Amino acid sequence: MNKAVVKTENLTKTYGNSRVKTHALKSVDMEIPNGSFSCITGPSGHGKSTLLHLIGGLDRPTGGSVFIDGTDISALSDNKLAELRAEKIGFVFQFYNLLQNLTALENVETAMMFKKGPQKARKEAKELLELVGLSDKADAKPFELSGGQQQRVSIARAFANDPDILLMDEPTGNLDSESEEEVLKRIFDIHKMGKTIVIVTHNNELAEKAEMLFEIRDGKLCERERKLLNTEK
Amino acid sequence: MNIPKLVCKNLLRRKGRFIFTLLGITIGMASFVALLSLGGNMRGEVTKQAGALGANLIITPKNWCAYDQISILTGESLPESLQYDVLDKVSAIDGITAVPYLTQKTAVQNNPVLVTGILPGEMKDFKGWELKEGDYFVSPDERAAVIGSSIANQFDLGLNDVLTIRGGRFPVKAILQATGSNDDASVYLPVSVVQEIYDVEGYISYIAAKVDDITRLDSYIAAVVDVANVAVTSDRQLLSSVLAILGAVNTTLQLIAGVALIAAAFGIVNTMMTATYERRREIGILRAIGAKSSAIFNIFLLESGLYGLLGGVTGVAAGFVVSVFAAPLIAQSDFTALLKGAAPTASLDASIVLRAILFSIVISIASGLYPAWKAAKLTPVEAISHYE
Q1: Chain B residues with beta carbon closer than 8 angstroms to that of A124
Q2: What's the N-to-C CA distance of chain B in angstroms?
Q3: How confident is the model at residue A230 (pLDDT cuts 50, 70, 90)?
Q4: Chain B interface includes A82 (CB < 8 A)
Q5: Which value does ipTM take for this structure?
Q6: Which of these, A115, A112, A104, A178, lies nearest to A144 by C-alpha position?
Q7: Does B173 contact chain A (CB < 8 Å)?
């Protein structure tokens, strides 16, 4: 098995105050191998998205640790965490989360401007839109695009800084079946390029295709590695 | 894509709000600049007039107040309350050259104009006047007029045009060379003629005097007070007391302008706070794709700074336009009448413009600090979980 690129230890997240506490995640231990295609499933409100946010460094755990490439990111400063997100992690959200006043191309470019060191140019942003089949929509604003197209722009954006890990929160949850197929095709294309992909989904068909499947119920990881990795097939 | 470009796009997203916020800072800055420029003009003009007076001593009746003293510098008409024989007494003092002023009002083409009664020969020497055209008075009681250059320009008067003053007809004999002072804005008649037509025989308004030895000013003052029951002020005292009054007026004007600016600053705070709230989600997205909190802080601060820059530029421009148009209106009041001759462009120098714009930027950035801090403080997940 490839070395784990994402690893959690005793990961716990609790919301609320001293009187009322909600345990969103309870002692989750998981390992996601480098280059794998993983899905996290489970009922709504049981902690899937919280887990994804913690893995991506968008939120901080109440207890336990998240390791990305062996680094404990729960110990990183806010700035280091932002650098990690800019360089190693790409996010795709259910509601696309594009910046509404920017064009498709500018949305992709925006992600490039937060990376340290020499920045990629407009040319690379165009290539990314080509990768998701939207080179003809570069100058379109999000409201001029269909849901599927917007999601493909957001995939191009997530991929802007060539991250190792792509985290997706129900990327097809808001799409019709035709758009869903198109978006999934792009996701599989990116996976073939050797990227680690983690998808939170309700879609059983997609979950079936995952190399690793995690199920979260009541904040606990209750079933894991239902499928074997490609390397073990 | 870079942060400034992103900021510009953000600013223009809500055009209405952008324009109204900008209008707030523009109005604030405009009032600030207009009042500052008017105040500056008054100062400059007063100083210039004091120089043009060409006198070391001003001799006035004892009961005159500061307002009357200002009027000497502003070229307003003053009461004829000094007896003519004071002039003889003062002139008799060794080392003093004195000239009388008798100021009255008349109308030319229905506009108020100052008439000054003078001793023709003495005044010409005292002031060093030069003629633009025509011939100067030949006798001290000639029934003719010499006019200042701005009077000639304003009413399109030429030689031999006839002015009617208190029923008398006075042909224009000569037009003075422009001096840049209030001397340009008066009609001059021999003092005896003015006394006669205004029915104030034996009286003048005040006396201006030069001394031979400026280092002995105090002893000259003592000598004047000795021979006549009058008040004597040196030109410097006069200037400083008038400037002190103007200073108080300026401070008041600036305070008023300051209030306008503070109101505008809160307009920016309000706009930016609303933007912070409305754009929580966008902040979350930017944070998710790798923006540090400092980048979010900079984005919001740059936005308020841009309001300051744009509002500063439009405000300064509007302020000067207002001061150009307001000056004639304000000049209708006696107190500020000296603005008549003051071109507002006199105060439009690059350093004032730059400082005003810089000030506007500083105020706007200060107004943006709190909203920017609030925006930067949002955690990515709390921002991204915000659904409209």
Answers
A1: none
A2: 26
A3: very low
A4: yes
A5: 0.89
A6: A104
A7: no
